[in-house]
Amino acid sequence: xxxxxxxxxxxxxxxxxxxxxxxxxxxxxxxxxxxxxxxxxxxxxxxxxxxxxxxxxxxxxxxxxxxxxxxxxxxxxxxxxxxxxxxxxxxxxxxxxxxxxxxxxxxxxxxxxxxxxxxxxxxxxxxxxxxxxxxxxxxxxxxxxxxxxxxxxxxxxxxxxxxxxxxxxxxxxxxxxxxxxxxxxxxxxxxxxxxxxxxxxxxxxxxxxxxxxxxxxxxxxxxxxxxxxxxxxxxxxxxxxxxxxxxxxxxxxxxxxxxxxxxxxxxxxxxxxxxxxxxxxxxxxxxxxxxxxxxxxxxxxxxxxxxxxxxxxxxxxxxxxxxxxxxxxxxxxxxxxxxxxxxxxxxxxxxxxxxxxxxxxxxxxxxxxxxxxxxxxxxxxxxxxxxxxxxxxxxxxxxxxxxxxxxxxxxxxxxxxxxxxxxxxxxxxxxxxxxxxxxxxxxxxxxxxxxxxxxxxxxxxxxxxxxxxxxxxxxxxxxxxxxxxxxxxxxxxxxxxxxxxxxxxxxxxxxxxxxxxxxxxxxxxxxxxxxxxxxxxxxxxxxxxxxxxxxxxxxxxxxxxxxxxxxxxxxxxxxxx
Amino acid sequence: xxxxxxxxxxxxxxxxxxxxxxxxxxxxxxxxxxxxxxxxxxxxxxxxxxxxxxxxxxxxxxxxxxxxxxxxxxxxxxxxxxxxxxxxxxxxxxxxxxxxxxxxxxxxxxxxxxxxxxxxxxxxxxxxxxxxxxxxxxxxxxxxxxxxxxxxxxxxxxxxxxxxxxxxxxxxxxxxxxxxxxxxxxxxxxxxxxxxxxxxxxxxxxxxxxxxxxxxxxxxxxxxxxxxxxxxxxxxxxxxxxxxxxxxxxxxxxxxxxxxxxxxxxxxxxxxxxxxxxxxxxxxxxxxxxxxxxxxxxxxxxxxxxxxxxxxxxxxxxxxxxxxxxxxxxxxxxxxxxxxxxxxxxxxxxxxxxxxxxxxxxxxxxxxxxxxxxxxxxxxxxxxxxxxxxxxxxxxxxxxxxxxxxxxxxxxxxxxxxxxxxxxxxxxxxxxxxxxxxxxxxxxxxxxxxxxxxxxxxxxxxxxxxxxxxxxxxxxxxxxxxxxxxxxxxxxxxxxxxxxxxxxxxxxxxxxxxxxxxxxxxxxxxxxxxxxxxxxxxxxxxxxxxxxxxxxxxxxxxxxxxxxxxxxxxxxxxxxxxxxxxx
Lengths: 577, 583
Fold this sequence. Notes:
The complex is a heterodimer. Chain A is of the alpha/beta class. In chain A, 65% of the residues lie in helices and 8% in strands.
């Protein structure tokens, strides 16, 4: 009996940075088109008021006609307000575009994380994933708004050139040819700034890593010392940031000098020429005023053009990182649904074999090997482990999970109320919650939390101790009522008395279901239907705890550590005077 | 360290304190600040000369078409542009340098404060809050100091000078321009009153979203195992729509601010044009003066916008500064040990202790621990064992009674001396993102490589010698280290500190049996010849100790050797029996 589930894990994300940007753009094509129109309109409208002002001077003032002046004044007012309106519409549209694009990237990152699931850590390095955080999303988002300024800048610039043409062909040519040359001059300088920027960023990153380190390890520094050591290191690295920052500022100040000085020089020269032409009678005073106004306005499209190029460049880098992350695929799995009620779970690599209904314990000294065996047996990683002889990888991920739950000793605790955490997003009634709390020993933790089930659990269980986190994770796993529960050392940080109680109650509550617990704790071993003794990475003996204790001296040595029965061996702390 | 953890944040400084701190920050680099102001004002002032010169040119054009005098003015214009460029660059540099220096001083002060935080404060507060202050807030202030403040300064000077020039040109026109821009004052007041909470809410919403994304990434495996995919996506959806809402809210504020401000510029320009035209036609002002005035009014919008837009980041910078300064309130005035410790006997005398505002967790404990003793402290969860360990190590101060080492109050000992007397080893270890050398040097920074190697050898960390880079190998969260190796490094710190007494709080409980053995061997070697106080979660630990202290609910209920206590048939015997019956 095999049911077919609909394909839900398959997503096709764009595979190159350019395609990614296109994908984002297409998702809000209408808005981007509107942004382009508004941005262009805004840029094109900017030089209109200076033109009108020139008319007001020439046509009104110089002719001594107050009526004309009033007419122009009204036109300037209307145009100015229209520009203000277009400006805010443009800003609103651009903000929406940026926001939606950033949120879409964040959503894609979340979707991809849950899609990859357990294979995420294997497929990507932590740093890569963290970089695809919110920073990249915003850089990419910003790049989607460059179409407005981009198209607008070219058009706006053209409009200014045409308007200048009306006044003087020479001036128009100077503007059309001169300014781009000026921009090109900045290019090599910007290259040097980029290098300095990356030096500065590196120094800053080092410093912030140190800060995070110090804050995280404050308790160690507190109990063992080393504060002065780390304090001085930090101050030294902070000084490096200051130095590289100042060095960067030196290069940037040159850019600044040129960025401000050159246009000013350009402006001055053009005004000079215009003034000279006026003096010769070739231009009117109004023309001179207009030339001045145009040049000031011309700075807007130019600087926005530079900004656009910079934004696009950064966005492509960020999109590259995002595309890399989105390009990973989870392990290939089949679509089969496990339906048999009686089953045998088997991991050939470790020789671990569990039958339905058993309360099995896996005991071994090498935690790494046991953890790997559990991942295989639970179908978390690709392996040859089987369910009634059928490879686990052939089963649908969700269908398998609804029957087999693996409890990691370091399972991530998501933020939420105690109720939310334990319920795993399902509806679990109060009686059931209380029952799993009692079985897992979480009830005791709950009594110490203000608000009981409504108490907020911080991400990673940051407001709980190690033992409390373990009991919470156990409660969470039990609440799922899995047919098969596979758990790795679920009570290692819980004190002996509580551990014994909890082990007993878990045993009770799991009666009739299948459980596989990896531990060397006597409290659990004594309750097992069957114990699998693992040496190296393979099961070397299986049987009841009592039998293994009698027959296997190595097993005895392994578990005696916890019981205190066998003080001849390396018992816990060698507490000697 | 159980349920007592409260979620209390750290204090925030008052506006007065922030002002004082800002003044101190500026005061410590007066020359740098003066250079910043002078260069900024000079550059801004120069930017205002061209319109004035254009006005002069227009006037001279009106009088006579003298090409030569126009050319002189034109050449002056070009010369000015050159000077303006140089000055802008210079101004940028001195400002950035001032910002960098100030940021460095701020960071240095910040780290001193963080390091001086008493451990109970660190434990009490929310670690995330401290982290945000140490990174995000300091970064924000640095940004504001390096960008917003200079920008505002230069822009404000430009605005002020523009109006000054306007007044010089024509007081009437200046008044008209101000009247035209009155709308800006009104809308800015309206805006600023709402901006800070709205932008804080926006930043908060995105921080939450970022946090959720990070959790989803870090917990991807768990999300798969517990089928939390839909829950994670739903949380993402919810937080995204919150974030979108917060963005729309600040966007709405700007939607009011921007049009009003932009229109105000136009209104001012039109008013100056109309009134100026009247004055010109009435022969009161010259055409050149009017033209210059009009150019100034047009030109003022740029710097004015800069000031308006920076005000918000200035506000949030001030909020960050207040949070950073607030940490200063937690730093205690330094307390010196009054007595020199004599010997290493530990005396705990009628100690009572409660975590801030919580119930008492230690309720009158008295113990004498002689040098070289080995003591195990047992008891159930919440009996107060870990708290007692922290009190003995001097990491907490008792509310009543005293904890002394060699007669000196342990919590008041200078750090270096305290570590040579007593060290606390817990299961909670932290490996710094630095070399192995630095990680071990934590305990005694004056140690040389030979001493570090010996300390590593004592705890059996021979693997360090096999590393290609030896002591220079960088370890820490980004560079995997097995639990056992991490514990060995942590123990090597203790070996290097060479304390007379060691307090062990479940140093090996999180390790698997094989690693635990390694660590226990290391511990055995380390503990030889020292006073040992072991907090025992496993009874086997207790059996090996010379004497056992049984705690319950913050008091000592029994004390003696394992055999004595078993014979007494008290709580310890019951505990021991119940444990052995179960197994």
